Each structure stands twice: as structure tokens, then as C-alpha cells.
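Field reference: sequence -> structure
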Amino acid sequence: MRRLLFLPVLLALALAAAPVHVVRPGETLYRIARNYGVPLNELAAANGIVNVNLIRVGQKLVIPSTRPSWPAAWGLTVEPWPLEQGRMAVFSVPAGVGALRVFNLKVPVTHGVALVPVPADARPGAHPFVLVGPELRGELVVVSGGYGHENIALSEEKNALLDRRKIRAEKKRLLAACGPWTAELLGLGPWRWPLDHVEETSAFGTRRTYNGRPGGWHGGIDLRGKEGTPVYAPAAGVVALSDKLYVRGNTVILRHGLGICSNYYHLSKRVVEEGQRVSKGDLLGYVGATGLVTGPHLHWEVRVMGQTTDPAVFTRPQLWRRLTPVAATP
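Structure field:
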């Protein structure tokens, strides 16, 4: 009986963390990859290394694995594996787990599933997580999202309009509009793109500078569109906000459940009202150039638990196959 009582502790102790290699004098990334039997590009991606010829003595390298490191007895699966910066991961957890603590988030579980946004700036390598309930602790491996870089040139007039106090207040309002996590998922299945013609002008996760100064990363996808181009709901949802904002101009935000919200910025016109329920394909407004922008386009953003994540993932069937255990509302 005593052995059964200590089973969770024994399982936690049995966890083998992702292997870490400390670079020694004279080693190359190629040699390390060969010694561990992993492809060079995967080793570089797992550690955010752009130039495979530049590593330093004493540097700690996470050795990626195609197999998670926790015991099979946990009954835990994580897809995709390894996790990628800025993209969604679906955790299928055993009975008795009520939430997941990871990336400074506490993600609730519904129908045995937790939808976890990996931050776009998550450090490549090992990250701890906790299954709340049995309190089992493990490690995840995050690899680089392979994001590019771009510089945004702002005119002196536009730059002078950047009021940090207003920017902070606007972000606070956006997060409040996305609202708390709810177990109801409004519609199940791949989302459509919000424009009929899809042409990206700036991808999600792109590392940005503004007039040469660091500015974080791009939290959404910019889609090319002439002023007046219709913008459609990608999935069923409830309008959480419809208003004209300081930076983002005419804005519509939809709540979709499970902590998911989708945001549409710089519209020329909004045609929905707060509290209105919309279906996939319903008109939300029209492309414009309102707010602090350099020209007409649609900025499409998706947040989960307040964290920006790659919107394109929601248009792919793979994510929704993993979410089938979640009860959908017609």
C-alpha cells in the first residue's frame, strides 16, 4: 500500500530531462550532432542557432529528441513535438489533471485537453511544466520558429504620435475584451482566412525594429488588401469589441471560447456590434488604413490566454484533429 501512495513521486523522479550538452574546446556543432545522432539543422533549430559555425565553449545545447522524456505511465501526449516558438500545442492529459502550468500560464483542461500557446520569444531549449492535480513535473523542448527580421520606417509625424501611456491602456483594453477562459468552443473545424484573397505582407513572429530600434516581434499577420475589401469572420464567435482605437484604428475582436480570441485592426468600417453572435463567413467590416499605419492592410491577430500565436495554425486541419475531444457548440 505504501508503494502505491508514493507512485506519483516515483514517476516524477523517473523523468529523464531532455539531454543537455556543454560545449567543450575544439568541438563543432557538426561533430556534436553526429555524436548524438541528430540532424545538424534540428540541433541548430532546437537552440536558436542561426550560424552553425558559431558556438562557444561552455554553451549549453539542448539535444532534441523525437520522443518526449516523461514516463509512458503518465498517459500524457503533446502535439506537435517538439514545440515551436509562437505556435499552438495541444496537451492530451490523463484523468485527474485540472490544469497545466507552463510558460507562466495556468491553462485549464477541458475534456482531457489543454490548448497551450508557445510564446514567440520562448527561449529554444527545455522548459518546465506541471500537471496540476497529481503535481507531476516534466520538461518540454521548444525549437526556434525560424522567424525573419524587418525594419519598419516610421515618418517623424507617425513617430511623434507614439504615446506610450495610450499604447499601454489600449493593450489592457484588448486583453480585457478577450475575456476569461471558458470551456465552450464555438465551432470546430479549420478556420477560413478573413480575406478571400490571401497575400501576406508581414508574417507572424517576424522580429522587428522601428527606425533601427528594437521593437519586439510582429504579433499577427498583415494581409494585403485595397481599402474597402470585405473582411469575414474565420469561425463562429461573439463580438467582444467593436470600436475605433488609438494605434489599431477601427477594431473588431471575436471571442471563440477556450481562451481564444481573434482581432482585426485598421478597418475602414465596422459592421458588427458588441455582443453580436457571428458565424463563419459573416461580414465583420472592410480593409482600411485607420490608426498608426503606413497604408491600407488587414492586421489579423489571434490570442490564446492573452498570448499572441500564429493565426495560420488555426486554418490547418492538424490542430482541429487534436481538438476533437472538446465538445463543440453548433
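Note: DSSP finds seven helices and 26 strands in the chain.
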